[in-house]
Amino acid sequence: DLNFVSNRGKEIYKQQREELELDNFNLLYVALTRPIEQLHIITNKKISKNIENTNYYSGIFINYLKKTGNWNNDKLNYTFGDVQRKSELTNFERKTKIQDSFISSPWKDHNIYMLASASKLWDTKQEEAIEYGNLIHEMMSKIISEEDITKVIDEYTNQGIIQKKDVKLIQHIIINIVKHPLLEKFFKKNITVFNEREIVTIDNQIIIPDRLVINGSDAVVIDYKTGKHSSQHHQQVLKYANTIREMNLKIQKKLLVYIGKEILVREV
C-alpha cells in the first residue's frame, strides 16, 4: 500500500521490493549449491504467449534454458551432467512400532476451557476490560464486513483470548458498531477497506488510522476510542484526513466511534 501514498512511500516500497528480491535470490542460491552429488528441481511451467514471468522461480529457470539454447516448449524434463550416481545407496533399517488402534474423543466433550489471555484483560473487572479495553479495538481491526464477525469471535475464543461466557457481550458490542446507522454502510461487502495500515506522511511520520474506507476517489476515516470524548481525538483524526488528502483522495467523512455501554459516533 506504501506505493500509493507519496514519493517517500514509493521509495520505501521500492527498497522493500529490492530487499525481498535479494532475499529470494539468496534463498535460491543456497538451495542450488547445497547438494553434494545430485540436484533435482521440480517447478511449475509458468509461461504465457511464450513469455516467462521472472518474478517466479519457474520463470528464472525457463529464462536460463532459453539463454543456453536448451528451451523446448513441448519438453518438460531437462538433464545436465552425468545422471549416474557416484556413491552407493545405503539401506537403513529402523524398528518401528505400528499402532493398531487409537482411542479418541472430541475435545468439546471434555469440558476444557482455556483461560482468557492476561494481556487482554488485566487489572480490572473482566466485563469492564472487555467493554472499554483494547480487546474490542483489536478485534475490529480484523473485521472488514459484517460477515467477519462470527469468524473473528470464534478465532479469539479458540485461542483462549476470550471465554465462552463473554462471547455474547462481545458479539453484542461489535454488532452495535457494525450495525450502527451512521456506520453500517461502511461495513458492506465489496468495498475497499484498510484496517490499521501504516501511512507515511510528507514529513516522514507514520500514522495508522483504525479504518479507512475508499470508494473511487472518496475516502472515509473512522477511528475507535474508549473513555470520554477529547479534543485530542479530533486533532488526531484531522491529521489523518490531511494526510489522506495528500494522496489525492476526497474526505467525505471523519468519524470518531466511542466504544462503551453505548456506541457513540461523532463526526469531526
Question: What does this molecule look like?
Answer:
This protein has about 270 residues and is of the alpha+beta class. The chain folds into 3 domains: about 1-65, no CATH class; about 110-180, no CATH class; about 185-265, Restriction Endonuclease. The protein has helices at about 5-35, 55-65, 125-130, 135-140, 150-160, 165-180, 230-245; strands at about 45-50, 50, 190-195, 200, 205, 210-215, 220-225, 250-260, 265. It has a 5-stranded mixed β-sheet. Helix 5 runs antiparallel to helix 6. The mean pLDDT is about 85.
Q: Helix and strand layout, with pairings?
A:
Blueprint: H1 7-33, E1 47-48, E2 51-52, H2 57-67, H3 126-132, H4 134-140, H5 148-158, H6 167-178, E3 192-195, E4 199-200, E5 206-207, E6 211-215, E7 218-225, H7 231-245, E8 250-259, E9 263-267
Parallel strand pairs: 7-8
Antiparallel strand pairs: 1-2, 3-6, 4-5, 6-7, 8-9
Helix pairs in contact: 5-6
Largest sheet features: 5 strands, mixed
Gross CATH architecture of the largest domain:
3-Layer(aba) Sandwich
Globally, the shape reads: flat
Structural class: alpha+beta
CA-to-CA gap between the ends?
26 Å
Mean pLDDT: 83
Spatial extent as radius of gyration: 27 Å
- Indicate how many domains the architecture comprises: 3
Per DSSP, the total helix count is 7
Order of helices and strands: HEEHHHHHEEEEEHEE
Beta-strand residue percentage:
5-15%
**CATH secondary-structure class of the largest domain:** Alpha Beta
Question: How is the largest sheet built, in terms of strand order?
Answer: 3-6-7-8-9
Number of strands: 9
